[in-house]
Every structure is written in C-alpha cells, then in structure tokens.
Amino acid sequence: MRNVSDWGEAVISQIIDITDEVREFRLTPAAGTTAYPSGAHLRIRVQLSDGRWSVRHYSLVGAAPHEGSLRIAVKRENPGRGGSRWMHALRPGATVEIAAPTSHFELSPDCADALLIAGGIGI
After folding, report:
1. How far apart are CA 24 and CA 9, in angstroms?
2. pTM for the whole thing?
3. DSSP 64
4. CA torsion, ordered 89, 83, 57, 21, to nearest 10 deg
5. What is the pLDDT of residue 118?
6. pLDDT at 80 over 80
7. Which of 6, 28, 89, 113 has the fewest CB atoms within 10 Å around its CB?
8. Distance between terminal CA atoms of the chain?
C-alpha cells in the first residue's frame, strides 16, 4: 500500500455514537483538508481480525470538510473480516493512515438536473 503516493496520517479528533452499531469518526489529516467532490470516499488502512492490514473505503459525510475534519460513519459488522471492529476499537487521539478523498462518480457541474438513486454501501 505504500506505493500509493497520496497516503498520509490523520488523527481521530472525535467519535460520536450515532446508534449502537454506527459511529461517526471525525478525522483531522496532518496535511490538512480541501474540498472534495460529491460522492467522495476516504480510504483507510485497517487491521483485520487475522492480523493482516487491508484498505476499506468509507463515504464522506457532508458536502465539505467540517472544522478541518473529514467525517465518516462506520457500521460495526458482526460477523465480518474485522475492519469495522478495528475502527470501532479506536479512540480519540488515535492515528490512522488515510488516502486523499476520491470520487468515482463525480457529478458534472454542467448538469442541469440529476436524479440520484442509491442503495447499499455509501448511503
């Protein structure tokens, strides 16, 4: 994963329990934040239950960074491979490895009207 040039560190600045299973994480990147396109997601390096490291994609909450932080919501999945459990074990002040926000379906600013229909991951 180190071959990706846009990886950097972020500090978990705040964790908010939305429900018993969903937590909002506010991450403050060491490199700062910039605007990101609609539908953007954040890649985070997580440790799986078998000890291996992997990458998970989490949709960004909100239309822009909030007070210098990026926000994601993570549902704890049981059973699963452990990425969400690893995230839910983090505490404020922890450092995680992230890659810059990206979007695979950015809307064109020239589009007059759009109808978005969504389901599944990223909602």
Report:
1. 18
2. 0.82
3. S
4. -60
5. 65
6. no
7. 113
8. 26
